[in-house]
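Q: Hi! New to this. If I give you a protein sequence and the SMILES for guanosine-5'-triphosphate, can you show me the bound structure?
A: Yes, paste them in.
Q: Okay, here:
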Amino acid sequence: MVTKNSALLEKKLEQTIKARKALETARKHQVDVLSNFAAKLSLSCKGQDVALDNQLAKFRGVLQKGMGFEELEPLIESMNEILKHQEATINTNNRALQQSISQAGKQLQKIRGLPEDGRRKLRHLLDHELSNINTTNDYIPILEKLSGIYQQALQLKLSKADIVSDQGEVQQSPEIANELLNLANELTFDEDVSQEVKAIKNAISLNDSIDSLLNSSLNIIKVIVKSISRERQSAQGFLVSLNQTLEELNSSIVATTKHSQNVNKQITNLNKQIESKIEGLNARTQQATSISELKSLVDGELKLLSQDLIERERIESEDKKALYESFEKINDRINVLESKVNTYKKRLSEQRFKSLLDGLTKLPNRAAFDDRFNQEFHQFGINKGDVTLVVIDVDHFKSINDKYGHSAGDKTLQVIARALKKAIRKTDFIARYGGEEFVLLMPGMHLQHAKPPLEKLRSVIKSIPFKFKETQVQITISLGATQFKDGDTPLAAFDRADSALYEAKNSGRDRLCLRE
Ligand SMILES: Nc1nc2c(ncn2[C@@H]2O[C@H](COP(=O)(O)OP(=O)(O)OP(=O)(O)O)[C@@H](O)[C@H]2O)c(=O)[nH]1
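A: Thanks. Here is the predicted structure of the protein with guanosine-5'-triphosphate bound:
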């Protein structure tokens, strides 16, 4: 019985030992997996904090040796302490990162001419994505997007600035060439500089290397200096002749005054003479004793008196004649003066008119547009009437220049300008903003109502039968429109129309886009 019991006990013991071994093996496996995992996890935390790195290295060493929990516990405690600080540091860093991303984004928003899709992405990123961040990793896609938009902006800037090759030599700069062309377009002081300006424009469009552009800039400055000095000479000439005429006028008046003073003296003397003769006659008539004596006395004195009176009349009539002649002369000189002043006034007003007119298309230029734009904006501030603003840009205009020459490009701009002017209302205002860009102001026109006439404008241009070098060419325009709204600034309104134009360009050109 005892043997049977002990055999049973032995068997149970064996089973228990086996179960315990299986449990230990499973436990060891679990501890190995966990240790491995903890070691990997600790490696991924590496690099955040030196003290934490040291503790983690020790931690991994202890795990590798398979030491007990007693050795791990103090390490875990000190790492916990470090991690607590680490969390606070990460939070502060994240806040700083968020702030700097937001600042960088706002800075980017200020860049003019950023493509519309970049501008939209940026707005979404700043208004929504940036405020929905929970972990540091969430910043990564945002930073990627931001760096993409930065690249776009950088490209935009680079295309505007000088591009220097790896070898250090300055290459082409199409944007500067554009600006110079616009400047050259405004040089329309006198007919005789128009040929020079034409030659400069040709040079700019044929070669936009920095050296050649510098040369063209120099030539533009020379034309300006020449026109200014001619203008100054002409102003000086006018002042000299004005002065001369005034001097002549003055000496005429002085001579006339002197003459009149002389005549006055002569007449006063004669009057005195006549008076004393009358007095003498009076005294002698009282002494006369007979009629015959009285008669001969009066006869003699009257003869003398009448001679004096005739003399006085002669002097007076000569004086009148001299005065009349002198006034005639003065009048002539005043007339000459007046006509000189009028000629100069006319020239000045022509100059002002010309300086507000684009030389090539004869449409108002950018300066004229700025004047009118500010005026309309001011008016809008007072009466809040509808004003639609449209920016119009000729599509692929560069290729016209490239394929058919700059003169063909010029002619195209003239034809388009004429067609645009013809197609708008009398109350609208169109100007050449620069290059192949036009701006249109439509006072009293609501943006939605502007759609049909603007679509018509687009199709009018599209249907012009351009022909270059025997080739029929269709030219299209893209339009971006907006309207003034409360709280606007001229710049904000213009930017809206401009970004609507970008949208029209980016979505295929030959179209109108509206931006409320
Ligand atoms: N003939 C001529 N060309 C001009 C004048 N002013 C600017 N340009 C040219 O206009 C072209 C404008 O080109 P881009 O700004 O690249 O635009 P685009 O070719 O019209 O293309 P999209 O606007 O993108 O459709 C440049 O080649 C300028 O040299 C001008 O007065 N006369």
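A: The pocket of guanosine-5'-triphosphate is lined by residues 177-178, 181, 185, 205, 360, 393-398, 401, 406, 409-410, 413, 435-436, 505, 509 (CB under 6 Å). Let me know if you'd like me to explain how to read the tokens.
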